[in-house]
Each structure stands twice: as structure tokens, then as C-alpha cells.
Amino acid sequence: MQPVYDKDLLEVASERSYSPKEGGAAGASARSRGLARLLFDGEGRARVHGPWRDLIATKAFRHRPGLSPAERVRLSYSRLRLVNDAAGDAAALAFDIRRLCALHEWTGVVDGGLCTLASIHYNLFLGSLLDQSAGTAGRDISEFTSMRRIGTFLCTELDHGNDAPALGTTAELDRETGGFILHTPTPGAQKFMPNTSLAGGPKSAVVAARLLVDGVDQGCFLFLTPLSDEGGRVPGVHVRELPDRTGTPVDHCLTSFDQVRLPREALLEAEHGRLDRDGTLHSSLGSARKRFLHSIGRVTIGKLCMSAGTLGMSRAALTIAVRHAHTRHISGPRLGERVPLVAHRSHHGRLLEATATAYAMTFLHREVVSRWIGHTPENRAETERLVAVAKGWISWQAREIAIESRERCGAQGLFPVNGISDLPLNIEGGITAEGDNLVIWVKAGAEMIFGHEVERGRPSPVPLEERSLTDLSFLRALLVETESAAQDRARTALRGGPAGDPLGRWNAASTPALDMVSVHACRRAADAFIDAAARTADPAARTLLENLCRLFLLRQLVGHTGELLADGLLTADHVRAFHGATTDVIAALAPHMLTLVDAFDLPDEFLAAVPIASGGRIGDEEDTWSTWHLRTSGIREPVGQ
Length: 641
Hints:
Strand content: 5-15%
Radius of gyration: 26 Å
Helix content: 40-55%
Mean pLDDT: 90
Largest sheet: 6 strands, mixed
Low-confidence stretches: 16-28, 623-641
């Protein structure tokens, strides 16, 4: 029996047509504003997001064409100081996880290098300094909160990235002075990719190094280390700038230390480790590995920040692409007819699928941030795993969205001034930063094979053949079953792997384990999406969100229909109907694309400065282009205007 489609579930009064005159942020509907409140932390929207949104609306954050990589780095540092002015209390920002994530969510839109620098200074450097309070008690940190000195974080080494506990850098206790001698013993122990050049002004770092007491390795700790001052680099600190990388440039370097002497208070101490004056280490943790993981605990919050940065970039890419699709006209089916790109299903269908995913990513991120803020010692490990899973899924989805959006803008999308060409490459940095996605998913998958139980819920009393593909609860239940099936395959593969060969057993189980992690992330995103729709007071907005969620779920499930059919969880009619169900929901959503991306709340000033997002294009008549560019760049005003 063909599943029933309740078309009434898909209908909502149209606010926007394909006509470009109805586009534009100035005409944003009340419905878009309501959706924006839901996307951006509700009552906390003004406090959490407002300052950063306002900041990127200013002329200082407009695109600056023609800058060299070095000039772009200096521009990012100058903008970092504007961020610090907007932050108010910089120390408080390091502890306010929602505001800290929001900072990344908005700055990444306009300057990927700035997003990276802010993450390092506020989260990894200042956050580590403040979290390990025993080492900062009585210490004056005003030079860092005022940015008289910029902070950076040195952990990863040339030979040690994902195996960071095996770091080679040493900090040996000097019995004569009570301080430490920081040293790089081998070329492979050079710190890899920190922003340690002289750009931006004087800098200090927290450096991860192996604490040696009378030659005995006590494990890795963090040490506050000055790198440079107004006169240049501190003696014994050696820095070599690395070649330019893809994406917005950052002053990445190789950094090493040659017998650099540090005072006793350089060691950052807390419950995970305190060193007595006689050199005895006291710790509440039982192993060197646990002490190290506690020392670099800010990496977990960094995953939330990286997720946020890539999330903001993907929403910006979508907004630009959708607005361009409404104003770019091509030949229509009749002689002399012109139609907007968005009129074509092949165009708007892809962008709507990306929009559905972007909403799911946003709601998942909000949920994960809330869980991290409210975690307890008992559920910390589970919450850290959720943060890692979400970071991998969000940043991978962000890359797909940014690439799709760029392609839908054609050749216009290749010009940096159009605000979209740098975004895919900047997202690549987030995918690798704070734990390479595949590596953190491998760890999560290994833990979840037996350390996680899928919550199936109660079986539905409705016969399978009567269940509809418009039913969110049905689609969600199918995703749960898909997650459970992947877990069962991983368990079977692990148990059946070669005896006495741990790596071989894991290799047999790793593919289904990673499948399980992927579906788990999608399921968590769907749950957050469904919860958000249920909180929506406006019935029409709720219908929009439910349709978006249907589209998201249908796209996630379509690759699993064969297995679901084989397991008796779908009928053959369901499988045949998947295409039609997807087409129907896309058709229902198509008139509302501008409403949906207006809710991403990008400032009018930002959008007005992006030609293809504001009805323009590269190559329009020269006078118009010159006037437009000078007006929006913030560099100078056109003469005589």
C-alpha cells in the first residue's frame, strides 16, 4: 500500500516569491526574525551574539582587495584588538562559553585568520591560564586581557600531533633557582604551526612540555613563556615562518627553545599537578596521561569553537548563494523569457537541502554547548565525546555546504570580494584544528561500540504499511534503527576479528564504527531540530521548521533504505516513495528560501558590501563598480561624492 502523504502538513502561506524585488535584508519578515531568535539563543541573543554581529557590520571588517599575505595577517591582528574592545572583560569571555563560541560564529564569516587568532588567544591561551588557577593566583594578567601582549598556545610538534602525550619538548627543574629550563631536544620536537611571528606585537605562550625533576619524567604540563617583546624575540626562542597555507593566512611558524630559563611561577598548576619547593609532585590524578589531558582541557572547548566558526561560515555561504539565485537571471523556456536561477529545481533543491542541514547543525551546536556547560564529573567523558562527534559532523557538513554554495554562484563565486571563495578553505582549517576529525571520530567510535546504548523508544502501534514519510517520528525512528544496525555490525566485526591482533580486529570494526558515529551525529541533530520546532509558537514558522526537518531526515535516510527494507523496517512502497516525498517537501519550501536564510541574521552592512548578495556582480559598468567598491570598502570615500 502506497504511504499516505498529508499535503496539509507541508503547506504554509508564502511570504516570498522568486521575484528579486521581494528579497533583501531590509524587508526581512517577522517570521525570519522569529526564526532568528530560535537559531540564536532566544532571550540571550542580544548578549551572546549581538556584540559580534554588530562588530562585523562595521567598515573595519569589509573586504580589503589586493593585500599581500603579510598584510592580511597584520589586518587580522588589528581586527583582533577591535574584538578585544568589543569583548569588555576578556577574562570573563574566556569563561562564557556561549559568547566565546558566538565570537567564532561571526568572525569566521569575514576573516578566517581572525577567527583562528581569537580562538588561540581567548580559549587556548587565556582560558588555560585562568583554568589552572593555582598557577595564576596573584599573577597580573592585565597585559594579556588588554592585549599589550597577545597569547598563543604551543602543543603540537613536528613529530607529535594526534599523539600529543608523546611530546619531546622538556622543562627541567633547575634546583639552583627553583625555576625551569625549557628546551627542544630534537628537530622533531619543534612546535608546529603556532602563530609565533613578530606580527601583531609582543607575544607570550603557554607551552606544553615534559616536566623533568632530577631526570625523572613527571608527564606533560603547561608553562607560561614569553616569546617576544618590543625589541624582538626573547633570547633562546627560535622561530621560522612556515610557507603560506590555503585559506586566510595566519602567521604559522616552527618554534623551538634553546635552554630558555623560566621562573618558578611559569608552571601552570592546579589539582592535576602541584610541584613542592623540594620538587615533589602532588596530583589528584593517577597517571601522567590524565594529567596531560587535564592540562590541555581547553581543547574540548576549542572543538566547540571550531564547530561554531565553520557553522557561521556555512550559513554565510548559503545566504550569499540563495540571494544570488534570486537576482541572477538566465534564459527561460520561452523565446525572450528570463527566469531567476532559483526557479530551477536543480538549483534550489540543492540549496534547500543545504539549508535544512545548516539548521540541523545550528540546533545541534546549541544543544551540545548547553550540555557542555551543564556537564558533571560523572558525565564529563560522555559529554566530551559528544563535543568531538558534533565537531566532526558540523565541520564536515559545513565544508559540503560551502562548496555547494560556491558552485551555485558560478564564476562570480570565485572572486574573494563576493565573500564566498575563501570559506571552503577556511573551513578546512577547522576540520583539522583541535583534533583532526577522523581521529576524534575513531576514538569516539571505539568507545561507542560497547560503551553506548541506542535508545530505541516504544514501538509504534500503527502498522508499518500505514506509516507515512511525512511523519517526523517515523523518520526519526528509522534513523535510530540505522544507528543501532551500524553498532551491531561494529560489534560483530570486532568480536570476529583476528585473535591476538588488536589492530587487525579494530581494522575489521572501524568502518561500521565510523558509520555508527556518523548516524549518531545525524540522529542527535534531528532530535535537536525536532525539539526546536516544537518550541516554536508561530504555527506557520513551525510548519517551515518541520518541513526542513523532514527534508533533512529524508536526505539522511535515503542511502540506508536498502538495509531498512531488508530488516523489515520499510516497505517496498516506502522505498519507491522516497523520491516523491523529498520532491514534495522541496516544492513546499522553495517559496520560502529567502525567509529561511534571512533568519541567519547576517548584517545588512555586510550583505550590502558583497556584490552578488546585493543584486550586483563583478563586471558591471566601471563607474558603478568603482563607486560601489569605494563606498563599501571603508578605505576611503570617492572624490566628489
